[in-house]
Amino acid sequence: MRGRIVNYTGGRHTHHPNKLVIIPEGISSKEEASKLIGRVVEWTTPSGKKITGKVAKAHGGKGTILVRFEKGLPGQALGTDVEIL
User: Fold this and answer.
1) What b/e string do you get for 44-61 counting C-beta neighbours within 10 Å, with b at 16 or more?
2) Could you report the average pLDDT of every consecutive run of 10 residues in the chain (85 residues)?
3) How distant, in Å, are the alpha carbons of 10, 12, 63 from that of 67?
4) Total number of domains constituting the chain
């Protein structure tokens, strides 16, 4: 399953580069998104390195998910695709 990185989580003065909001393909409700909790997510850098994360929870009511990655992702990752295993 694929997904698209939307944004970092955070507030007005801070953001967390290892916690990202992702829109998975084919998911449109909070109930469907909550079934993905615990799955592994991989983002591939342009050089081919893979950074993995885990789905932590559903985010909002329209099917987005919150993913915690092992290290922070760069700003170039915003808007790119990830693989949900």
Assistant:
1) eeeeeeebebebeebbee
2) 94 92 95 96 95 96 96 93 96
3) 13, 20, 13
4) 1
pTM of the model: 0.90
For position 35, which CATH number holds? 2.40.10.190
| Enclosing domain of residue 69 | 2-84
Q: In angstroms, what CA-CA distances link 55 with 21, 47, 70, 79, 81?
A: 10, 24, 12, 18, 15
Residue type, 18: N
Tokens encoding 12: 């007005």
Instruction: Provide the pLDDT for residue 15.
Output: 87
Confirm if 14 and 23 have CB atoms less than 8 A apart. no
- Of residues 22, 54, 21, the one with CA closest to residue 38: 54
